[in-house]
Specification:
The structure is a homodimer.
Chain A (H helix, E strand, L loop, with lengths): L1 E2 L2 E2 L4 E5 L10 H6 L5 E4 H6 L3 H7 L2 H5 L5 E4 L2 H7 L3 E3 L4 E4 L6 E4 L1 H11 L3 E3 L11 H22 L5 E6 L5 H11 L6 E4 L8 H12 L8 E3 L5 H10 L3 E3 L2 H8 L1 E4 L2 E4 L19 H5 L2 H9 L4 H26 L3 H17 L12
Parallel strand pairs in A: 3-4, 3-13, 4-5, 5-9, 9-10, 10-11, 11-12, 12-13
Antiparallel strand pairs in A: 1-2, 6-7, 7-8, 14-15
Helix pairs in contact in A: 6-7, 7-8, 9-10, 10-15, 11-14, 13-14, 14-15
């Protein structure tokens, strides 16, 4: 995939940098963990620092000093998940902001205008997100509005050089997923995302719909599964044809003291690591694993020292990017399915075996 | 000054790494800001991770992956300032720990034993600290006990290769300061610190006693003013002959959103910086100033993003180390007093002038 700020190798995991910062990490750190794309969020960035800042500075790349590709989510999911006090209409969403308690408006046009100011390489259309457990009529109505908003976004984009991705909806209803992909693929979007998953659906529903809906999207364009997930989630979705992922999991889990390693998840606060004068992951080449012991990381977390979360989220991002690099290698070698099976078995053995240090993957 | 982990250029500002970490920063960060010495704390480190961890790992250098010099404070000041539930006797201090709520004991011998396990390059003797406003008899009694404890520390050190510094006490009483320096300089300590300042004394008392007491200490050994201070404090103390400093100010102020710059203090959360697409300090070569704008730093603090404090404390340490490097240059050029006067005037103009962004230096 080629963007205005360089090429991206897919499948790719994008580092979540909601507020123009990947929690606690500098752009140098991101390069060190081989992050390819940073994901910003229109909803949060329109509230703070606001459009004027991006217009004045000349966009997010200069604002956060990141010269690689940036994708911005449109804010549709945040309106759904964060704004209790919201009114949805055909025009757009009116919601009360967490920053200044004032009413703000987000429409397809306003979202594109904001993303143009942010200057992301890839913009997302504003979509209407509903709970997967809503009745079919509700899911259909939101999907149809999402389609109309996608066309309004395409018009609002005008001749911007920024790419624009559509978001397919349809909940867990196969017929609706078919309609959504069928409608959107007829229009000149630069890529397609699957939205409306991980919002009330079960794990097996999500896996089923991911496979079903990804195959309905054009194979010659990037296909992006939004907000997913654990390493097994990613491995399975790649088999379904997904090219792009984003998820807060590696950074959030890192800040909470959980590391993803080649031998399963490690909760660094556990007493067993107090005396472990070994690296977090013997198979990892990140700076955390090269320089620091589990014992020291344990001490940092027990002392509530901010260096601990920083070192763990650095490692977790490196781990995710390693997994993607290995997946790309396996795909190029024509051996992806065997690679995936081996990886899934390894993870299952480590995370559910008798010596497991893991929280249940489903509990995340 | 030469230590087991390399030479140190003086005057030197030591980075406070109480719990074997300088808040939020890696050893690579410390090298980047040209930190020469890290200061750990015996009181905190004996409680967590505890002596056994240091014995097993082989000391603090390996534990925190810092190969430069380390100085450890003895814990005397922390017993004074942190332990409400404490009993002092000739033997030592018994106090209740904040970590496990259990009673712990710290004596001169126990402190040396702990510092031997930590493996610091420079150990400090355990002293008895009292409020500067205490009556003269109380200050004298604590000073005399500090002297006896200093000799017990010297004996407990045995033939360790680690350096050992004494701590002169005597509050703000000139006669006691004379006695303390006179007593301690007769014994083979590797360096001498001034303790019992910045504990209830006024600014002018502190400056007066610093000058008076520093001159009483042997000029051929390092002289260390503990826990001080602002840039003007350091400049004045260097003129008095002080070689070593430590203070939480640059890191703590950084975490609270205040930067020390060549044009005075900057409170980055102020609205004026929201639109300031300029570096924090045009005269600074640190990574924060090279890579990030005030506008971005303001955004990070307003968003409570941990990258903000990290970038500001990085800058502040760089600023302090720059000041020390400039002071060393001026001393070598035989022009320290002129340099100090110019710097003090600059700071005064920036921090108390009409366009000042500063909090009152005395309010820190």
């Amino acid at each position: 995939m080629v963007t205005a700020h360089g090429a991206v190798e897919t499948p790719v995991f994008m580092a979540v940098g909601t507020r123009a910062t990947v929690t606690g990490l500098t752009p140098d750190d991101l390069r060190e963990v081989r992050a390819q794309v940073v994901l910003g969020n229109t909803y949060h960035l329109m509230l703070r620092p606001g459009m004027e800042t991006f217009e004045r500075v000349g966009g997010i790349h200069r604002f956060m000093t990141w010269d690689g590709p940036v994708l911005t989510d449109s804010g549709g999911y945040q309106i759904f998940s964060l704004s209790a006090d919201r009114e949805m209409s055909e025009r757009g969403a009116v919601f009360r902001a967490y920053t200044d308690q004032r009413k703000h408006m987000l429409s397809p046009e306003r979202s594109i205008q904001m993303q143009a100011a942010i200057g992301s390489d890839i913009m997302m259309v504003l979509d209407e997100c509903v709970d997967s457990r809503a009745d079919e009529a509700t899911v259909r109505t939101a999907m149809e509005r999402t389609h109309r908003w996608a066309l309004r976004s395409l018009a609002a984009r005008e001749n911007s050089a920024q790419a624009l991705f559509a978001i397919a909806q349809g909940g867990v209803v196969r017929e609706l997923r078919k309609q959504s992909a069928g409608f959107l693929r007829e229009h000149p979007f630069d890529g397609f995302a699957l939205g409306g998953l991980a919002v009330g659906d079960t794990r097996s529903q999500r896996e089923d719909i991911t496979h079903f809906a990804t195959e309905l999207l054009p194979v010659e364009r990037p296909r992006y599964l939004m907000g997913v997930g654990t390493p097994p989630d990613l491995l399975l979705a790649i088999a379904a044809g997904v090219d792009m992922f984003d998820c807060v999991l590696p950074t959030h889990m890192g800040w909470q003291g959980t590391a993803f390693t080649s031998t399963g998840r490690v909760r660094i606060t556990r007493g067993a690591h107090r005396d472990a004068d070994v690296s977090l992951d013997a198979d990892c080449a990140c700076n955390t694993c090269k320089n620091h012991s589990r014992s020291y990381l344990h001490h940092l977390f027990k002392s509530s020292e901010p260096l601990g979360p920083r070192l763990l989220s650095l490692h977790n991002l490196h781990h995710y990017n390693d997994l993607m690099a290995d997946a790309r290698g396996a795909i190029e070698a024509g051996a992806y399915v065997a690679f995936m099976r081996r990886k899934l078995q390894e993870i299952d053995r480590h995370e559910h075996g008798p010596a497991s240090d893991s929280v249940d993957a489903a509990s995340v």
